[in-house]
Amino acid sequence: MKFDDEPVPGYSLPILPGHVSPGRLERVLRAGKFAITSEIDPPDSADPAEVLKRAAIFDGYVDAINATDGSGANCHMSSVSVCSLLTRVGYATILQISCRDRNRIAIQGEILGGAAMGACNLLCLTGDGVQAGDHPQAKPVFDLDSMSLLQIARGMRDEQRFDSGRHITMPPRIFLGAAENPFVPPLDWRPHRLAKKVAAGAQFIQTQYCFDIDRLREFMLKVNDLGLLEGPDRVFILPGIGPLASARSARWIRANVPGVHIPDSVIARLEGAENQKEEGKQLCMDLLNEIREIPGVSGAHIMAYRQEHTVAEIIKATGVLEGRVPWYPGRDDPKELNPESSEALLS
Amino acid sequence: MYRTRRWVVRHSRVFETIYRRFEPVLVKLAPVLRRLGHERIEAPVRSVEKAVKGALFDCQMCGQCILSSTGMSCPMNCPKSLRNGPCGGVRANGHCEVKPDMMCVWVDAWEGSRRMQHGDRIQAVQLPVDHRLKGTSAWLRVVRQLDGTASSTAKSETTK
Predict the structure, then answer these.
(1) For the whole model, what pTM was predicted?
(2) Where is this region: Disordered (chain A) (predicted)?
(3) What is the CA radius of gyration of chain A?
């Protein structure tokens, strides 16, 4: 999709009425298009080229790229720096902030900094516990929780003030997101908890990996009943999906990654397949096809950790973009190519 | 004690009633407490509060108690000190992501709140913790608030 008023790549779009951010993701969602987001695993390196290389894999297939913030409590390049590198060449990014590592002073500074660097979307997360990562001896901060983080970010944007009440001269124009996990207990509270997040400021939701369509359907029905999918303060829901590499890795994820619910039937399907990796990809496509049919779903968030190259294939095979080619550097003008994309490296 | 605090959650409605009866008593005591001087009685009240709430709820003395909004399950026992509901890491059996042997504080809170008359308070968004109040008496704060002399620096909206 190309917007008529799209200026120089990487520059902000004009903020339309009813919109809060100058970003492309909000435009796509509010235009009612099925949006695709994916995420970059930030490098364990100070090399900016690595970030650009990882982003180029998604060229033409995603509407925004999440830059994870110490995902799984492991140390990587920071989310705000990954976003900064990406927005420089024009990518739409989703800045992630987890409450695990910073207090409210650092977090609010980061929100301003991220917005100044062109990150138009902010995903507010609690964060995995430090026990899950490579520095279990670290101090867990959790000064805020995802809910109070959302509320503070909204206050910065809409009321132009820090949590302390101090005035902000130029507010961050950010589209606010949060995570939800409809697949773990307390199941009957999850839709209400989402309502609480919306009340705190959430405008889009990316969920944890979905491998259980029935639970997602039930969740979406309740969310709809709560009236969260209509009106000017409606929330856009992007269920998370991803390809499983094998039955063994599915079992490992289930046991070791906090909050991932994988039903036995999924593992059995992978086990019964001749080529488990292919089957994992097929399963992901099947899930995507089912998810797009669920009323109220606005898009999908594809998490293909260490299988990023499969994202393009999954989207092509399912046709969820309906012929739309999300903007990427060089789509309209070869001079704007991401210098680390394969096209640029070949020429 | 883990067992006691889970027992309390199973009887959250009883404790809700006790708290509701306790509040007018505090209000009646307010002039007396004021005459004694809040600062002078802070230490003894704090000790009693810590002993009682510690035994019943595993209270961590955050100084801004919200038990009546959390199904009588103290949110400060959550390893991530979440004040607004469970994280996404809750295990399939309802146990904590960080401490696998412990039931998620918020799974308990949800159960407890559903037994309470005003359990829907769990849906209210709670402000972040004011760390200056840690270790102080929440009871006395309630007294001061109800008495109309709430400290102007305390910005949490919570009661009890």
Answers:
(1) 0.94
(2) 328-347
(3) 19
